[in-house]
Amino acid sequence: MMKHLFKNKYLLVGIILVGSIIFVSTQHHGHSHEHPAAKYGREVNEAAQKEMKDGHSHGHTHEPHGHTHESHGHTHESHDHTHDHHGHTHESHGHTHESHGHTHEDTSEHGHSHTNVKRSTSKYQDYEKDSYLYFLNDPVKRLWTYSIGATLLISAFPCFLLLTIPLQANTIENGPLLKVLLAFGSGGLLGDAFLHLIPHAQPAGDHDHGHSHSDSGHGHSHDNTVGGWVLGGIIAFLIIEKLVRLMRGEDGHGHSHGGEKKKAKHSDDEGNGKDEKNSKKKKGAKKVEEKACSNIKVTAFLNLVADFTHNFTDGLAIGASFIAGPYVGLVTTMTVLVHEIPHEIGDFAILIQSGFSKKRAMLVQLITALGALSGCIISLLSTDAHSLAEEAVSSWVLPFTAGGFIYIATVSVIPELLDSNSSVWQSIKEIIAILAGIGMMYLIALNATNGTAFMSNIMRLEFFWKQEIIDNIRIAIDNSGEDIFLENILIKSVIIKIPRIDQVSDYFNAVFQNDERVPMDINNSEVREHMEACIENNTIKEINFYLHFSINYPELKIPKLYGYKMWDKKDKDGLILIEDLGRDPSINSDPNYIYGKILPMIPGYNEKQLFSIIETLAKIHATSASIPFNEKKYAIENFDIEEYSKWIDSMYTLAKIGFVEKLKKDQFKERIDRSASLYCQSTIKNVYYGFEKKNGFEGVLIHNDLWAANILFKKSSLGLFDEVYGIIDWQTLYLGNPMADLARLIAFNTTSKYRRENEKKLLKYYCKIFNQNLKDKSKEVSLEDIDKAYFESLPLVLIFFAFSTPMYYFMNFIVDGTQEEIDNRREELINRTLDFYDDVLEKYGI
């Protein structure tokens, strides 16, 4: 059967192309409107989500809206934020926010990890000394091995596909199939130029795509840089082809269409005359063929030049992405690989048409891979690989290459398809092939724009300073006579938080399985618009929190802010650089040493840990209560209680679907029904105070999402994690009832037995610390006030607990381990939720 299959060349090629398209359609390459060289930093985020099955999830992984909690805090342990590499290392953690919150997954690791991912306890696997992979323990060797290996893979893999194409040379027999492949190649070139290279080739520093819309006139400010370089590429390739033809002494067209030969006036022997005529015909035909072949060889040369340049930018991207981390590198590698498949097939057809043998054509294509290899090496040697990659993309390289591709497809390849007497069926196949080439590039472009993380992506950027710089700074500090710490100048690492909505959380879908009753499809314009409004508001609030509050109170256990880019409505992007609480800030510290860590929600906190959290929280609350309202009004801006009420109402339905229909936990049905009256505006108003004074509290900044994944503990000299190191992820903060933070902390992160037995003791301790740290003693509260505020906060905490538990059910801190361990954790989670339902319903007499 295989013999017959290979005889049917069209069938075989069709299988290859269909297989390639299916492969492409299953890939998601990160965000985009950027070439891999510029977008690798964004793909990182997607990588963390998709690759996180393996466990690299540090940080906010993105889930639908609502607070679906997943280890979303800076999980600072060698898991989660563990993005240490050499140079600038970035890795993706993912901050998952929901309708207005973060989705967290408690990976019991350090940090920003909000995904159902399992991570190893160290960033990289250590190999034994007797292992042939032992050299990979060295970070520099590992970086070079991964980067060069990925580049070679991208170069070699398409060649294996070419081996299956039944073309050995440009023969009459192969003519029809070759024309189909040429058509596919021209479609690929045009698709690549118009769907990838030109859209990605934005002028440096310009994020407006050359279009500026002013309120006063809709004036358009056009930047012609990209278009100019595209035209430049077309003209340059035309000039090169002209020069080559002049040097070879060829005519303008390259196709010799000679006239009819004159008949001989005399012929003594008709047979000899015919032989002579046939001989001349053959010679003439051979000359025509040689000229045509020579013409195509110029095209092949131009195509190889364009491919070399294109491959060079791919190499820059791969090198820069592996500097960012292995998972970032893996995703970028896949992006480039699926992009190269249609390209290589088209290039192969052009080379065969040029007169190359199959073996020689494949060899020449491998030679162009030197462009990728050189780009990768330059990127690895560069002190700023990211900037180098972005400059290559935002400069002339991509549009110039696009111009070359357009020239080759329209001037050199498509005329070859027209310059023949093809049958109707052959013409149809060629047109289909052109559309297939364009369609394949479209699929890649489509996946590239719809595959990133959902609300925020978290990365660790790690710096490795030269010893010379360290020594010079130390000398300067010593000479200054001032009390300055080296680590305050030479930062070891930072956390990068990039808000974004692009991919609905896998965890949400794991529960609701694309249920039409669940309004979480971001392809729905209304849902997406709501999500974007949430992320915009959350991002602005968090930046303002750092700018106007935490920066003024460094003694509070909140990450430092190092920089930010405010949310841009048009480009829908923003950036926050904050302190990395997961790694030792000392310059010479071990980058894999666990310094700050998130503890898992189950089994939960011990009493010493709870007291440390409550002390930290009460100090933050008290400090915020003492500052003027105008310094914290940002926390309540754009809050619409009507819209929020709609979200709360929807959570009632989600709880029913999640527990009863999806998890088959029928014991929740009656409890959810009884709780229906709690899903109302009064429940919201009992937590969201705004500027109102209630139960003794006024103007307190509340975290509004306090659970295990947002609290880091510092490792003691004894190896214990009993002292809070920092509370992170403040994007859902509000002015309101501080007991909502405390109630959520106790309900989510302790056993029912402990909560019931120790509630009063914990509230009393909070009251003591809060009043002790108030600068304005007129704002002191009584224990009675605290009791009442705590009571009023319970319904909203219950609503979020009921919403979150079905998602926790599938998260890493639950499903990691043996089946017995998983079952025990799930049982504890369900019992904890059931008991909280019972206690709240009983207290409210429902």
From TrEMBL:
GO terms for biological process: intracellular zinc ion homeostasis. GO terms for cellular component: membrane. It is found in: Membrane. Residues 48-122, 251-288 are annotated as: Disordered. Residues 576-776 form the CHK kinase-like domain. It holds the Pfam family DUF1679. The keyword Lipid metabolism does not apply. The chain crosses the membrane at residues 143-165, 177-198, 226-244, 361-381, 393-418, 430-449, 794-815. It comes from the Eukaryota. Coiled coil: none annotated. Residues 48-112, 251-278 have a biased composition (Basic and acidic residues). Keywords: Membrane, Transmembrane, Transmembrane helix, Transport. It is a multi-pass membrane protein. GO terms for molecular function: zinc ion transmembrane transporter activity. The keyword Transmembrane applies. Belongs to the ZIP transporter (TC 2.A.5) family. KE4/Catsup subfamily. This is CHK domain-containing protein.
